[in-house]
Specification:
Layout: H1 28-41, H2 81-113, H3 121-148, H4 168-193, H5 199-230, H6 236-255, H7 260-265, H8 271-280, H9 282-302
Helix pairs in contact: 1-3, 1-5, 2-3, 2-4, 3-5, 4-5, 4-6, 4-9
Length: 311
């Protein structure tokens, strides 16, 4: 069956406005005003934005082979083409699930922060758009996973209760959002440009990147402002504990990409042992460092971290 290429029924995918201004020239309130206008201009109906074929394009990758978690490891060379293509389907579904689960928590947190006394009118208005777009992303990721693998991979992280210094919970929340969105966006950009990838998968990644470019432009500036406002009031121990948590959260987020259930679903034996091997392999470590470079550089530049974390 020949699959009709998917297309999004929305505005042309022009570069987002956030790429045309230096964040250093704006406050979070100013960029929120500009991004709210961009969100209104690019508004779309997620339920009618995509054409969903009965089957994905035969023979196409769902994730470029170079992005697969087993790429560069000894196991990769033992897998035939059919298994690798199957692995790519389950790995893109795992990526979509990870972002979906992260955005599910983000939606909860954004709703809680609407009309907060800590936000001005401009930021609150943009949080409405942020919330709407994250909900759309959950819809499209959930639709893909349920249609083509019959499930959404569950969240693996456990929320640990902790006490926060003044303002620390806000900084933690937006740092978590940045980790989810920056890592996901790295994959979005690469996948959307790769012509070996199924057209629907490319389009979903493209649409997600366009929205996330606005979210990240706001998040980078707002998180830095929050940290600059509150961290001077934290004790040395509280600051050290925060940085330890942030490094650990980034490392744990990467660990979720190496999902033994994905390997089993793709027909790979000894899934847990394969996961442990892949996590520790130099090729995998190099990939995680490369994909995290922009995010880690931001954390260090703003003082959120003082050194590169082990990934």
């Amino acid at each position: 069956m020949k699959v009709k290429p998917a297309r999004a029924k929305r505005h042309d995918h022009a570069p987002v406005e956030s790429q045309q201004h230096s964040p250093l020239m704006e406050t979070a309130s100013q960029i929120a005003t500009r991004l709210s206008k961009a969100s209104c201009k690019k508004f779309y109906d997620v339920y009618n934005a995509f054409e969903w074929p009965e089957k994905l394009q035969e023979g196409a990758w769902c994730m470029p082979p170079e992005l697969l978690t087993l790429y560069g490891t000894p196991v990769y060379d033992t897998l035939d083409d059919a298994t690798l293509k199957r692995l790519s389907l389950h790995e893109i579904s795992n990526l979509f699930s990870l972002v979906l689960q992260g955005e599910r928590l983000l939606v909860q947190g954004l709703a809680h922060r609407l009309y907060s006394t800590s936000n001005n009118r401009e930021i609150t208005e943009y949080l409405h758009h942020f919330l709407d777009e994250e909900n759309k992303h959950m819809v499209m990721f959930g639709e893909f996973c349920n249609r083509y693998i019959g499930k959404v991979y569950p969240e693996k992280k456990l929320a640990m209760p902790r006490e926060f210094a003044k303002g620390q919970e806000e900084v933690v929340f937006f740092c978590m959002a940045m980790v989810v969105e920056e890592l996901g966006d790295y994959y979005n950009v690469v996948i959307a440009k790769d012509e070996r990838v199924d057209p629907l998968v490319r389009e979903i990644n493209k649409v997600h990147h366009i929205d996330e470019a606005r979210h990240l432009a706001f998040g980078r500036l707002y998180t830095a402002e929050l940290f600059e406002r509150y961290s001077p009031h934290w004790s040395e121990q509280q600051l050290a504990d925060f940085r330890q948590w942030l490094a650990a959260y980034l490392k744990a987020s990467w660990a979720d990409y190496y999902n033994p259930t994905v390997y089993r679903d793709a027909g790979i034996a000894d899934a847990y042992d394969v996961r442990q091997m892949a996590l520790a392999h130099p090729a995998s470590i190099a990939h995680r460092q490369r994909a995290s470079d922009k995010l880690v550089s931001y954390f260090i530049k703003t003082g959120l971290l003082t050194e590169e974390p082990a990934l």
